[in-house]
Amino acid sequence: MPDYVIVGAGSAGCVLAGRLTEDPDVSVLLLEAGPPDTAPEIHVPAMFPIMFKSSLDWDLMGEEEPGLNRRRFYLPRGRMIGGSSSMNAMIYLRGNRLDYDDWAAANGAEGWSYDEVLPYFKRAEDNERGENEYHGVGGPQAISESRSLHPIVDAMLEAAVQAGYERNDDLNGERQDGVGRFQVTQRDGLRCSAADAYLHPAESRPNLQVETGVFVERVVFEGTRAVGVSVVRNGARETVRAEREVILSAGAYQSPVLLMLSGVGLEEELKPFGIEVREQLPVGRNLQDHCMANVNYLSNRPSLFDIFTPENFELLRKEGRGPLTSNLPEAGGFFRTRADLPAPDIEFHFSPSLFYDEGLTAPHDHGYCFGPVVIKPTSRGKVMLRTPMADSKPRVLCNFLTTEEDRRSLVDGVRIALEIAKQPALKEVEGSPYSVPASDSEEDILEWVRGVGQPVYHPTSTCAIGAVVDSELRVLGLEGLRVVDASVMPTVTRANTHATTMMIAEKGSDLLLGKKPPTAAGVAAAASN
Description:
By secondary structure, the protein is an alpha+beta fold. It contains 14 helices and 27 strands.
């Protein structure tokens, strides 16, 4: 019987499995519903949109969104070893110092302030820029510069500077404001998922067992203690037991579903399905994600359109560079739409490619896109059961733009985008509007946003610290059960969430093993050994 059963081999589950089994006296069983991460499209960075709605995708569909013309959003989630880290855009961002300090001060997340979590970020990193106050080397996760460096991205960054915004060459450093190129989770021009970084190097350990194609239906309890999980393996239902703890790392959609199916949730949500309430907690509530609206422009200059050629595949194979190494949004920036804000409320992604129809339609011509992402949303959504059947896809309501504050941020963010688009640097790439508002009036911008707005696939906070789990990620009122993934964030960070999810699992592994938190000096010493 393994000490720990981990449900979900995604960004968090892979980190946990790798870190926990560094101790030879600890045994781990990692369960993943999807297949191994052997498909070639997983590893070629520019191919990630090809996996949308494939067998490697949970392929969820949201509920009608009241703030966006009752549209229903496509919600991709990786269904394979590596989870969404095997199909994301590989952007490495942590968010703002204030995100974590607010967790600790306002949300009861003791031990999760910025200064306390920074050593975990640094411990995870093998950053090719080298070690400094904010970055680490020698960790499992490769953090690299882009090997694409598309000239249209340079033009977009120059246009932002011409519009009056500062250049920032380290968006994870001392300050977040400004524009610059992203670092990416790649190694030698190929994707470096959480599985590549943490799991595959550990697979030969005798204390780690990884099983794919295993669907977990619910947590099994004896009294108030979780003792295992009910699974379907090769068409047969069985119970897999854990000696110490069950750890849910199935993500911000599936972890709350597993809890609710196991009787952990609100009575009003569970009673209609005949599920007996074991512990009443606001599971599935407090969903937060980032809403994006990209302006798209056609261009007579070469973009990332039509790059899947034999020559480019050979360039990637031989030299680990070229357009196939692009993560598409190669650069970005952070902006405050009002002077009185304590931190940025808008993020941009600059991509040398058209991106429309939620990425479900391939670009038809050369072009580029960028635009605002609301990164400090006040709107709150929820994840709900669709049926009591374990394999039913959940109901997800993002509830985007249902507050005046969120609408204001996005409108002002679109105005920033339109101002950048008018600058001389972008005139030189001969851009012509493809999808933009009719004008910069609030009415025209909101009408356009309601037709093109979409998630950026950063769901968090559905099992939040202080509401569903405690500061050590233990489910409140129960024993032997923790949640370790993006769902425990009290609030979504002001940036893409993959790096933070790995940090949560790095810290979670220490909490599970009873280790003292690392210090910055300790991380540096470990890296030099």
